[in-house]
Amino acid sequence: MSHDHHHPTGFKRWLYTTNHKDIGTMYLVFALIMFFVAGGMSLIFRIELFRPEHVFIQPEFYNQLITMHGIIMIFGVVMPAAAGLANWMIPPMIGAPDMALPRLNNWSFWLLPFAFLISLSTILMDGPTPNFGWTFYAPLSTTYGPKSTDFFIFSIHMLGLSSILAALNIAVTIINLRAPKMTWMKMPIFVWSWFITALILLAIMPVLAGGVTMMLMDRNFHTSFFEAAGGGDPILFQHIFWFFGHPEVYVLVLPAFGVISHVIPAFSRKKLFGYHMMVYATIVIAFLGFLVWMHHMFMTGAPIESQLFFMYSTMIIAVPTGVKVFNWVATMHKGSLTFETPMLFALGFLFVFTIGGVTGIMCALVPADYQYRGSYFVVAHFHYPLLATVMAIMAAIYFWLPKWCGNMYCESLGRWHFWLTLISVNLTFFPQHFIGLAGMPRRVPDYPLQFTDFNQISTIGAIVMGLAQLLFLYNIIKTVKRGKPAVERPWDGAKGLEWTLPSPMPYHSFETPPDDLDEH
Amino acid sequence: MLGFARVGRFVARTLTFPVRSVKKLLGIVALVLFQLPVYAHSGFSSYWNMPRGVTSISHAIYHIHMVALWAGVVICVFVFSWMLFIFIRYRRSKGAVPSGVSEHLGVEIVWTIIPFVLLVVMAIPATRILFEIHDEAKPAMTIKVTGYQWKWSYEYLDQGVRFYSQIATPQAEINNQRVPSPNFLLEVDHPLVLPVGQKIRLLITSNDVIHDWWVPDLGVKQDAIPGYVNETWTKIDKVGTYRGECAELCGTYHGFMPIVVKAVSPAEFQQWLAKQKVVGGGKVGKSSKPSAPLSENALLTLGKKIYEKDCAVCHQTNGKGLPPTFPALKGSPIATGPVGPHLAIVIKGKKGTAMQAFSEQLQPQELAAVVTYQRHAWGNEAINKAKGHALVVHASDVTAAEG
Predict the structure, then answer these.
(1) How far is residue A476 CA from its own chain's centroid?
(2) Domain residue limits, chain A
(3) Of A87, B196, B234, B298, which residue is least crowded by CB atoms under 10 Å?
(4) Does domain A10-500 have CATH number 3.40.50.300?
(5) Which of B72, B247, B250 sits opposite A140 (nearest CB)?
(6) Does the model's pTM come out above 0.80?
């Protein structure tokens, strides 16, 4: 594990560490734990939704669960997992010894568990936990918010700080610490994706922080930013929230794009098709991502001019996104394919993401959105790309785990995990398209009788999905403890500097920058 | 099959979670296996697709939805069959050798242009429909729709009729103590009655948090936002009852504020309207003549009725509330304190909570009755007597307190 004999052991090692690999591991473990916490919450409300009436939780608790589920899945699972991958993989991919700002790196991680302790501690308090949905629209979260909202706001501030510092560190590392021969257009695409992600984060997190600070002022210091009765504007909150919230979608999905652009070439034994176009497409997506936020607000009484502008800008995003999908498939075309678990998950990503993309175009059409918005169709729509992102993260873990711990995971367990996940994701979310179209609103604990059967299918899918993740957990723990030793390059088609290092990666790597970039 | 369903329902409904949860679980399993057809087709007009609806707008929306849906299916079929072809043709196990080609400007241009054209083809009709949706000119009548936690009010601005519309599904059904009726969660006490064939302008706003007025069959969805009055319209082609639910999370009972629109012929609408006017501007219009004082017993009977309709959702039938969101009234400082503050909170509501200003929604007589009931029920009577606080409130007290 270590070539360095100075670092502390036990708990202090993890508390004081400035090593990018240790911090990467902590991010990933944290994300895994929170994945089960937020997933467990979703199972509770999915079981409630098994029947149209109250079964075993009350509407108030239901609202608290959906709020926490959303916040944790986004800020506690997908973002930390992506940050963990960045920490582990960006330095070896660019031939750097560590992140540029190691102490900052430690701090950005350790803010995270405490931020969640603060928001989760509201469960133990007298008064409801935040219950206004992960979008926390004013005035439901301001004038009408429970007392615990102030803890929630503070927690969001800390999460924002953590994200800004992590993004800053990643951007600075990529700009400054690349191996001498690694020009921008020779950079691995995962690094490119994270570079753009980091820039997005730096632009949007301060906006969110400003928004929640305004909430704090409205709640405690007698301002009226969002309070109509005081001359404020509830829609202003939505503008601020979605100016953060839509680019945030790309913060979640761009690192996943990066992962897929490594896994698919490795198992196709071919170079990524259209590398340059892939980079440009990512930049265009990120740019357009800033110009579409009002498509979340088509029914707020937006004038036709802005509805049209945001409809067109949203539809245009489909073009660079389509380019990416076509390039991934073209990478496989005339390749030499094998289907190990990382590849299966990458293909699962492609399948699930494409469906989510297509429903995304449907939602962009404003007239149709008059029926879709606020319905289960939207729930189904956004869970598709998000579950695709989760599958991409799983692909990344199976892909790089041998490199991290030096052991091979159990392939047959991995395949079981993949097939159960793919089937259950579709079992859970596909029927939600139907009930949404027929008229079922989202965020309701009970529903009209006709939606019962599709909801029951959905609940069964969710339970299978939850159980399948236990296989994932077991496989990871088993692999980390023991397993067939992994060779330096366990995937014969994988290229890049990270694969030139031994497995497991030494505690300190690339103390001198490499000469050869290990290109295809 | 149906026999099993009955057994399943019996088992599921006679036992309460979590006391006999194993048996309940068995009941749920029986429901999954045998009850699916029983639940189908009630409430909403469509089962698993967007309804065509009964307005020209809903037809147009349905059309663009189907165009986009099929375009999406074509895209998926193309991508997935290409992938499938690759999986079969280019497997290493079949001896596939990787080609060296990794850039091709031609295909990149092709798969940039083709989706773009496809999008333009969809954007043109979408733009056209959007202009129709925004054509609010020349309405025959205007109705102001206001969202409350958790009910709607409808005001016929030109006719001077105003009433509240709230869920009529019994609590026992919601709490799983009785078999749900076919329109479970989709029944209201006073539906919005509209004439067919007339363009009706809807002005939508909110009294507290953001709600959203959505009736799928009309193709109408509009946020109800405090401080804003949003405008939309509908013209219903067919007589019938059309249902919807609030489509924006608005607090605890977001799932329990349905919308029912009853579309009737213009003649029938006029008859309905005339009847509303006789009542005195609908349910909430203040009648001008003071009502005769009621006896204590009459107040209690009326009060219990009002309490169960308007208060029990939050404060619960047993008066214990759901603290801390909805405080208990049983033994509460308000209900067992001086009459003044008790009347004031019922009349004016409490800002920043779901406690509304009920003077807008109830007649003085009804307000007096419900306050009287609260001061008597759940053992409050004994406490009030011991402390020497008034027990009975009359309509005249309410009028005085309202100022």
Answers:
(1) 20
(2) 10-500
(3) B298
(4) no
(5) B250
(6) yes
Which residues on A lie below 8 Å from B175 (Cβ)? 53-54
Q: Which domains does chain B have, with CATH numbers?
A: 2-39 (no CATH), 56-133 (1.10.287), 141-279 (2.60.40.420), 296-402 (1.10.760.10)
Paired tokens of B154: 């409808």
Taking an 8 Å cut-off on Cβ atoms, the answer to whether A359 and B134 are in contact is no
Is the Cβ of A140 closer than 8 Å to some Cβ of chain B? yes
A504 cis-preceded (ω within 30 degrees of 0): yes
Q: Catalytic site residue A69? A: yes
Q: Which of A48, A218, A227, A248 is catalytic?
A: A248
For residues B132 and B59, what is the distance between their CA atoms, to the nearest angstrom? 12
Q: Between residues 33 and 72 of chain B, which touch chain A (CB distance below 8 Å)? A: 35-36, 39-44, 46-51, 60-61, 64-65, 68-69, 71-72
Buried b / exposed e across B182-209, counting CB within 10 Å, b at 16+? ebbbbbbebbbbbbbeeebbbbbbbbbb
pLDDT digits (tens), chain B, 403 positions: 344 455 455 445 444 344 445 555 666 665 555 544 444 456 788 888 999 999 999 999 999 999 999 999 999 999 999 999 999 999 999 888 898 888 899 999 999 999 999 999 999 999 999 999 999 899 999 999 999 999 999 999 988 899 999 999 998 899 888 888 889 999 999 999 999 999 999 999 999 999 999 999 999 999 999 999 999 999 999 999 999 999 999 999 999 999 999 999 999 999 999 988 655 444 445 555 566 788 888 899 999 999 988 888 889 888 998 887 888 999 899 999 999 999 999 999 888 888 988 888 888 889 999 999 999 999 999 999 998 898 898 888 888 888 7
In the stretch 128-167 of chain B, residues with CB closer than 8 A to chain A read 129-131, 133-134
Taking a C-beta distance cutoff of 8 angstroms, is the pair B198, B138 a contact? no
Using an 8 Å CB-CB cutoff, list chain A residues near B129: 367
- Residue B322, beta-bridge partner list: B326
Answer yes or no: do B96 and A437 touch at CB < 8 A.
Answer: no
How far apart, in whole angstroms, are the C-alpha atoms of residue A389 and residue A405?
Answer: 23
- CB nearest B175 (choices: A54, A60, A140): A54
